[in-house]
Each structure stands twice: as structure tokens, then as C-alpha cells.
Design goal:
With 380 residues, the chain is of the alpha+beta class. The chain contains eleven helices and eight strands. The protein folds into two domains: 236 residues, Orthogonal Bundle (MetI-like fold), CATH 1.10.3720; 44 residues, no CATH class. Helices cover 67% and strands 6% of the residues. Helix 2 packs across helix 7, helix 5 runs antiparallel to helix 6 and helix 7 crosses helix 9.
Length: 380
């Protein structure tokens, strides 16, 4: 007896569900067996498992933190500090790499031979040298810079020496600065999502909003008897005032930005090349300038091609922050590695490290998916 179409579809559906249930059962059974075997092996070796160690004091120091720290902190707080450091460096590198990448990619796509040659040389150098070699080389250069007395200065407000980078800063607590950064990122996402302003007016509105927020923060949280801006000044053998950016953070930021922007530049160049020549020629026939053609035709059309691979580069840049361990920068990977040595809780700490990166990169991927879907044409 021949089966009807509906019966064939039902049988196919049952077969697919059965295969999925079998796969899930195998995975769950494997995980349970691994956990059981690992627990038994730890018990045989007299090792304790679990996360109770997170409430113990660490008893060791590290180089950089966005919040107050001491050697009496618990492992949980120290891991949180490492996580914040990773997020901080990662997002700064993503923002700067994207800006430089778009600029370099546009230069390589231009008809100016000099700009195109410079962009090509930049990409070939920084894309083909391993990131860890760039980090170690830059670190060796920076630690051999002149001391504070002979520091390089920019208008006597920014100083670079072997002690780090000194920058002017607002006289407000560091936690307030952190929330200002979070709010500025949130406002930028709101502007992108609302689509009420074009690119340049949107950037202008964002800059004005950030300036107003900083002014309000100084008025509310600043010290009444101090100036709104703290400028570094040399006192004896060191600088006082301002913000001291450690050489490890400077090295990490520069190296990742140089490396990441080279890859993003190629993504941007490829996206710009995908724009149909007919649209560009139509703009030229209307008498539009090169700048207007780029901002009104090439960039909007190319974004639909650029965004998916750009998201992959953002995730790669975030994972690239783990090289900080090579120069002693206290990112999450460095904190976890040191914690494993001091506490012996290898499996738990590796699980926390993997979970943290999974959370961050999954969130980045979801943002990229949303951004990509928002740029799709209505008809598609």
C-alpha cells in the first residue's frame, strides 16, 4: 500500500526528531561520564573540586586594574578584575581597529597611487607578522624609552616614557568614568538603531552628548576644590596628576590595533570593490564629489558586504587579548593562569575562562547579527 504525502512527511519528521534525541542523549551521557571519571580521579589524588576557593584571598599582586585592588582580594573579585580588563582592552582595540581599518581600506581603494601604496605596505607588514611577535617587539621598544625626566611630550599635557603614558583626565572617580564609557556605547547603539540621523550628524550628536555627560559628571562627582581637568606634571622622578596608562596596556592596545586594522582594511577594501560601478558612474554623472560618492553611495552599499566578515574580525580581536600574558598584562587569561598555579583548581578556572569568552563572543555575534539584519534591504 502506497503511503500518502502527509504520511511520508510525518515519517520524515519522526526520523529527524529521533536522530536529534539520540545525539542529545549521547552528548549528555558523554558529559556525565567525563564528570564522573574526573571526580573519581581527583578524589584518588586527594584533590578537592568545586568553587569554594573563590572566597579565599589571593595573596599575590598584578599590574593593572580598573577598580581598587589589593592582595587581600578574593579569587572571585580578582577574576572579575581580569574580566573587566579583558573587556576594556578588547573594546578599545575593536573601536580603534575599526576606525583605522576603514581609513586604510578606503585609502587602498582610492585612485591615489601614493595612498594606495602606503596602505598596501601597511597591510602586508602588520597582517603577516604574528601578533605575539608584534607585542613583544613593541614592549621591548617602550620599556627602553627615556625616563620620566626625558619623556616625550605633546603640548606638555601628554607624556610618554618607560613608566607609561600620562594623559589628562577628569577629576572624577574611575568607576564614574567606566559608567560614562558604558553610557556612551549605549547611546551610540541607540543612534545606529534609530536611523534618525545620517553618519556625520550622528557622530556629531554622539560627541555633543559625551561632552555634556562628562560636564555633568564633573559637576556632580568632582571635588569642589579641584580643577575639572587633572593634567600630569613632573614632580621629582615621576609624574603626578592625570591618568597613568601602564606600558603593558599601551603595548597591548597598539599591537592589537595595528594587527586588527590591517585585517579590517582588507575587509573594507573588498566591500568597497563590491559596489556596482554603474552606481559610482551615476554619481559622477550627477556631478557629485568623491567625498559625497564615498559617503552617500559606496559606504552605505558596501556595509551590507562588510558587516559579516567585520564581525568575525571583532571576535578575533577580543580573543587576541589573551596574548597579554606574554608581557605580564593582567587580563583574564593571565589572572586565570596565575590562579591555577596558586590554587591548583585547574578545571574550575579553565571552565570559568571558557565561559567568560563564550559569553563575550556570543554577545558580540548577536550584536553583529542584529546589525546585519538592520542593514538589509526591505525587499530581502
Amino acid at each position: 500500500m502506497a503511503l500518502t504525502t502527509e504520511e511520508l512527511r510525518a515519517r520524515s519528521k519522526r526520523r529527524k526528531i529521533s536522530i536529534q534525541v539520540a545525539i542529545v542523549a549521547i552528548v549528555v551521557t558523554t558529559i556525565i561520564a567525563l564528570v564522573w571519571n574526573t571526580t573519581n580521579q581527583l578524589e584518588k589524588q586527594g584533590l578537592t573540586s568545586g568553587f569554594d576557593f573563590l572566597e579565599r584571598s589571593i595573596g599575590w599582586g598584578y599590574s593593572f586594574s580598573l577598580i581598587e585592588r589589593s592582595i587581600q582580594d578574593t579569587y572571585s573579585k580578582t577574576l572579575l578584575i581580569g574580566f573587566l580588563n579583558t573587556i576594556f582592552v578588547g573594546f578599545i582595540a575593536i573601536i580603534l581597529s575599526t576606525i583605522f581599518g576603514f581609513a586604510i581600506g578606503t585609502a587602498k581603494d582610492s585612485n591615489n597611487l601614493t595612498m594606495k601604496s602606503v596602505a598596501t605596505i601597511y597591510i602586508q607588514i602588520f597582517r603577516n607578522i604574528p601578533l605575539i611577535l608584534q607585542v613583544i617587539f613593541l614592549y621591548a621598544v617602550i620599556i627602553n624609552l627615556p625616563s620620566s625626566r626625558q619623556a616625550y611630550s605633546v603640548f606638555d599635557v601628554i607624556f610618554l616614557s618607560n613608566r607609561g603614558l600620562m594623559l589628562p583626565t577628569l577629576n572624577i572617580p574611575l568607576s564614574v568614568v567606566f559608567w560614562l564609557v558604558v553610557l556612551s556605547i549605549g547611546f551610540a547603539i541607540f543612534l545606529i538603531r534609530s536611523k534618525r540621523l545620517s553618519l556625520l550628524p550622528g557622530i556629531g550628536a554622539w560627541i555633543v552628548a559625551v561632552i555634556v555627560a562628562c560636564a555633568l559628571a564633573v559637576m556632580i562627582f568632582g571635588e569642589p576644590d579641584q580643577a575639572a581637568l587633572s593634567i600630569p606634571a613632573l614632580k621629582g622622578l615621576r609624574f603626578v596628576g592625570g591618568l597613568n596608562v601602564s606600558i603593558e596596556l599601551v603595548t597591548m592596545t597598539i599591537a592589537i590595533v595595528l594587527y586588527g586594522s590591517a585585517y579590517i582594511a582588507e575587509v573594507v577594501r573588498g566591500g568597497l570593490k563590491e559596489v556596482p560601478k554603474g552606481l559610482i558612474e551615476a554619481g559622477q554623472a550627477l556631478g557629485l564629489s568623491s567625498r559625497v560618492i564615498w559617503s552617500r553611495i559606496k559606504l552605505p552599499m558596501s556595509l551590507r558586504t562588510i558587516i559579516p566578515p567585520l564581525g568575525n574580525q571583532w571576535i578575533f580581536i577580543m580573543k587576541g587579548t589573551t596574548i597579554g600574558i606574554a608581557i605580564g598584562f593582567s587580563d583574564l587569561f593571565y589572572i586565570v593562569s596565575t590562579s591555577i598555579t596558586q590554587s591548583g583548581q585547574t578545571l574550575e578556572l579553565i571552565a570559568l575562562l571558557a565561559g567568560a569568552f563564550l559569553l563575550v563572543n556570543f554577545s558580540l555575534a548577536q550584536f553583529i547579527n542584529w546589525l546585519n539584519s538592520s542593514l538589509k534591504l526591505k525587499a530581502h
